[in-house]
């Protein structure tokens, strides 16, 4: 049996109620609801039943996402009772890009953010993830759709990627001003703009193939986190 994919954070290609594919530039009404919303149970009844059958058969079942992105055509949205929206918005439908991603493409703040979020332990990278999201919001690549308090008290920013429509949930690590420069350095290291490790602080540094000799003099300037508060 095919594995059931609960990645429900991307923009749908068709209305989730009437299943009609969206036309380019058609107004799409979108929103984010908790997975527990009765509307989610209704819209994904078939998928949930499949999953229940798989679980009953002893197959591993993927964890549900905490939030679900829903997309509807205007008519369906009008007829919909309020499912407990966390955030709603509307915008013209943009078909997904068809060009394959270049695997050799250089790391950018955007690709780095994605790889940290999709990595094994996003919680361990909460600070760079948050700061990268703030950078991308300032560049208008991400737009904040909602701010949410998780049950454990964590503040969660719900961002939408303007072009792809993907929803990103970013925990706010509540960085102090004093912590930001260190996080910026970590981001520069992860982007390959800095050597991987700092030398030992006590002067007993082991001579080794640390930083390569500087051919041109000055190192390249860091990316734009200087625009941060
Ligand atoms: Zn519809």
Through-space gap between termini = 50 Å
Stretches with pLDDT under 50, minimum 5 residues: 200-229
- Round the Cα radius of gyration to an integer and report it: 22 Å
The general outline is globular
Secondary structure: helix percent = 10-25%
DSSP E strands, number: 6
Widest sheet: strand ordering: 2-1-3
- The helix-strand sequence is EHHEHEHHEEEH
How many independent structural domains? 2
How many distinct helices?
A: 6
Beta percentage is 15-25%
Bound molecules: zinc ion
Give the biggest sheet: 3 strands, antiparallel
Average pLDDT over all residues: 81
- How does the helix and strand content classify structurally? alpha+beta
Q: Could you list some keywords that capture this structure?
A:
binds zinc ion; 229 residues; 2 domains; alpha+beta; three-stranded antiparallel β-sheet
Structure, described:
With 229 residues, the chain is of the alpha+beta class. The protein has 2 domains: 1-96, no CATH class; 105-194, no CATH class. The chain is built from 6 helices and 6 strands; from the N terminus they run βααβαβααβββα. It has helices at 38-43, 45-56, 74-78, 109-117, 126-138, 180-190; strands at residues 27-34, 67-72, 87-92, 142-149, 155-161, 167-172. Strand 5 (155-161) and strand 6 (167-172) form a beta hairpin. It starts with 26 loop residues before the first strand and ends in a 39-residue tail after the last helix. Residues 200-229 have low confidence and may be disordered. The site of zinc ion has 8 residues, from helix 3.
């Amino acid at each position: 049996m095919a594995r059931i994919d609960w990645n429900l954070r991307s923009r749908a290609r068709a209305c989730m109620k009437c299943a009609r594919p969206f036309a380019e530039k058609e107004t799409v009404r979108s929103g984010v609801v908790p997975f527990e919303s009765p509307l989610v149970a209704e819209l994904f009844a078939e998928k949930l039943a499949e999953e229940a059958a798989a679980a009953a058969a002893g197959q591993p079942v993927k964890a549900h996402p905490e939030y679900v992105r829903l997309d509807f055509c205007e008519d369906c949205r009008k007829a919909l009772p309020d499912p407990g929206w966390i955030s709603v918005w509307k915008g013209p439908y943009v078909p997904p890009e068809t060009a394959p991603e270049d695997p050799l493409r250089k790391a950018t703040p955007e690709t780095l953010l994605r790889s940290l979020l999709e990595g094994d332990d996003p919680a361990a990278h909460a600070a760079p993830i948050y700061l990268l999201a703030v950078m991308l919001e300032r560049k208008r690549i991400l737009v904040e759709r909602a701010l949410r308090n998780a049950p454990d008290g964590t503040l969660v920013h719900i961002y939408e990627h303007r072009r792809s429509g993907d929803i990103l949930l970013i925990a706010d690590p509540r960085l102090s001003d004093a912590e930001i420069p260190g996080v910026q350095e970590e981001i520069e290291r992860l982007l390959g703009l800095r050597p991987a490790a700092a030398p030992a602080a006590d002067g007993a540094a082991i001579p080794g193939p640390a930083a390569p000799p500087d051919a041109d003099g000055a190192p390249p300037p860091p990316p734009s986190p200087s625009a941060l508060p």
